[in-house]
Specification:
645 residues; eight-stranded mixed beta sheet; 33 strands; binds zinc ion
């Protein structure tokens, strides 16, 4: 007899009998699936395991590799965290607790101030909750019911969130044991699924990100499917911490921030100066080779200029207060563009003069709140590797291809081979946010797209991400850890030429409007070098290393020879230093190793006798004795080819 309440579902190539009213979890348990399955996908829609099987269907199990399932696991871990906190600190009020990249957090308003020891205690309680394997269940409730539940539980922050759920949208709560949360889900079926987790830190966070609201305590953590994956992640985090550019920047004498001088302002120490100069020299040479002219412009300009440029309307909150000079107000420049424009306007331009490519290492100042400043990465004054290209509309696409080509070449030179390109275009539903005409925007967006296609660069189209003055390409570079860093930006601008009434005389003898491209390749010298410190872990390739060779005499008897070696290398344009003094060779090598110097040349009596050097590489170790000219030739080659070795 055919039972109408029964139907067939497919699950990984197998057929399973299902009953109406059953959940995916029932099926999973009946078929003995492991708890590596966290969610399922049915007809392209992800569902949690506790949701009912809708009818005959094909079910795709989702494990940790699925981002939806991963998020469900971590979001469930955040609920376990909140439950543990409520058990230990009953007065704690719940904020929000989402999954984030690599983990999760939960915000609490609580009298007790969390210390690292508390995290251990909370982790232990979380372990108990996981062991209890409490079912995590979803309940749809009415607005009133939800209000009653969270009023009774004294969760004012939850009530605030509840009020913001638009009328008509379902209100759902999730329960596990004595714990209840206002939450849209999805979650794992029980707390027992969270087998490998770790609380990582605690930080202050304003409720709703609003400085005028209460400061809550945010506990961060992470969760993985297995202990091994978690351990691997924690190890990597430790490596990242060791490579922090603020730590290495200090240890290696690259830069500092002087609180006495003001926050967010970078001081480049001598070693950092060498690195920066090497980058700038390369930058200038490459720009000249590609038809750019190098210009320099002032740091301040009259307020009226910023009025014409529109910055006063659009960028005021990032600009500093005026400086008054002989009754006129001047503003520090947050951007170089208006200056290049004034120079363009200074002469009559013909179509034959275009394109003009003007590059400047321009130092700009932008106001950032002190709370967001971060080493070299988020600062208040920085030097942009800026350029503006003025061209005819028919030249736009070729110019964009040229910029992309330069960007690719430079990034590759620094060892960045992986990046993501984003094409930022207008939000088609909110065109009022942007300056400029429709047709002009469409033209610019099309040119950017065509240039990306011609360079064979895959890209994501981001609607609504464009700045107010034009569409752009933003390239995010990936470092050795796969982390994204802001890289080149290329912006088409039809707006400033309009505002400043820029023209060129066309073939027809009549004035025409040029197109302007703003672009940076490295972004800011500060941020770029900060990123390089972390990317290389402080071990800069030879061409960038502040000290390329350290010469270490074995005893005092070879100091004269060592000094001669240093002199010879310096004459060859190699940055060499001697390491003299009574310390032992082993100590000097270790010290040079800590300074991440690419080559150490150890010279003892034998080397002095034969005019050779014993070469030691910071990562490859002992390379044996070499005649000095041979060694210096090799290093010079590494420098000139900008070898990443
Ligand atoms: Zn939740
Ligand atoms: Zn610009």
């Amino acid at each position: 007899m055919n039972d109408s309440r029964e139907f067939i579902v497919r699950w990984e190539g197998e057929e399973l009998k299902a009953h109406r009213g059953e959940t995916f979890l029932d099926l999973a348990e009946r078929a003995g699936w492991s708890r590596d399955v966290l969610m399922v996908e049915v007809d392209g829609v992800t569902r949690e395991l506790r949701s009912p099987v809708p009818g005959p269907c094909e079910i795709k199990p989702l494990g940790f590799e699925s981002s939806a399932a991963r998020e469900a696991l971590r979001h469930s871990a955040s609920h376990v965290l909140a439950q543990a906190v409520k058990r230990l600190y009953p007065d704690a009020e719940l904020g929000i607790g989402p999954a984030i990249e690599d983990g999760f957090y939960y915000d609490f308003r609580v009298r007790h101030s969390f210390e690292p020891e508390d995290l251990e205690k909370i982790e232990k309680e979380m372990g108990k909750i996981v062991e209890e394997d409490l079912p995590i269940t979803r309940h749809e409730v009415s607005r009133q019911e939800a209000f009653d539940i969270f009023s009774k539980r004294r969760e004012p922050l939850k009530l605030e969130i509840l009020e913001e759920i638009p009328a008509g949208e379902p209100v759902s709560i999730y329960k596990q044991g004595e714990f209840t949360d206002l939450c849209a889900g999805p979650h794992t079926p029980s707390t027992g699924y969270i087998r490998a987790f770790k609380l990582t830190s605690v930080a202050g966070a304003y409720w709703r990100g609003d400085e005028k609201r209460d400061m809550l305590q945010r506990i961060y953590g992470t969760a993985f499917l297995t202990r091994e994956e978690l351990d691997q992640y924690l190890k990597r985090q430790e490596e990242i911490k060791q490579r922090d550019h603020r730590k290495l920047g200090k240890e290696l004498g690259i830069f500092s921030i002087q609180e006495e001088g003001g926050p967010g302002l970078v001081y480049w120490h001598p070693k950092g100066g060498v690195i920066r100069q090497a980058i700038e020299d390369f930058w200038r040479e490459e720009h000249r080779r590609r038809g750019y002219d190098i210009v320099y412009t002032p740091h301040i300009a009259k307020l009226d200029l910023w009025k014409i440029s529109g910055h006063l309307d659009w960028y005021r909150e990032n600009m500093y207060s005026p400086i008054v000079v002989e009754g006129a107000e001047y503003l520090l420049k947050p951007m170089n563009c208006p200056f290049h424009i004034l120079m363009y306007k200074g002469s009559l331009r013909s179509y034959r003069d275009l394109p003009l490519r003007w590059a400047e290492l321009g130092t700009v100042y932008r106001y950032e709140r002190s709370g967001v400043l971060h080493g070299m990465l988020r600062v208040r004054g920085f030097t942009q590797d800026d350029a503006h290209i003025f061209c005819r509309p028919d030249q736009l696409e070729d110019e964009l291809v040229g910029v992309l080509d330069l960007a690719q070449f430079m990034l590759k030179t620094f060892g960045y081979e992986e990046y993501d390109c984003m094409l930022s275009v207008r939000d088609p539903n909110d065109k009022k946010k942007y300056i400029g005409e429709d047709s002009v925007w469409n033209q610019a967006e099309a040119a950017l797209e065509a240039a990306l296609t011609r360079k064979g660069l895959p890209y994501a189209r981001d609607e609504g991400e464009a700045k107010f003055y034009g569409p752009a390409i933003d390239i995010k570079i990936r470092d050795v850890f796969g982390r994204g860093w802001q890289g080149p930006t290329i912006q088409v601008d039809f707006n400033l030429p309009e505002r400043f009434d820029l023209t060129y005389i066309g073939e027809d003898g009549k004035p025409h409007r040029p197109v302007m491209i703003h672009r940076t390749v490295l972004g800011a010298m500060e941020r770029f070098v900060g990123g390089l410190i972390e990317h290389y872990g402080g071990a800069f390739p030879v061409w960038l290393a502040p000290v390329q060779v350290k010469v270490i005499p074995v005893t005092e008897g070879q100091e004269d020879y060592a000094a001669e070696v240093v002199k010879t290398l310096k004459a060859e344009g190699i940055r060499a230093e001697g390491f003299f003094g009574p310390e032992k060779v082993g100590y000097k090598i270790r010290q040079s190793q800590l300074e991440k110097i690419p080559y150490m040349l150890v010279v003892g009596p034998r080397e002095k006798e034969s005019g050779t050097v014993s070469v030691r590489h910071r990562s490859r170790g002992d390379l044996g004795p070499q005649p000095l000219p041979e060694f210096s030739q090799k290093v010079k080659e590494q420098i000139s080819t900008k070898s990443l070795d």
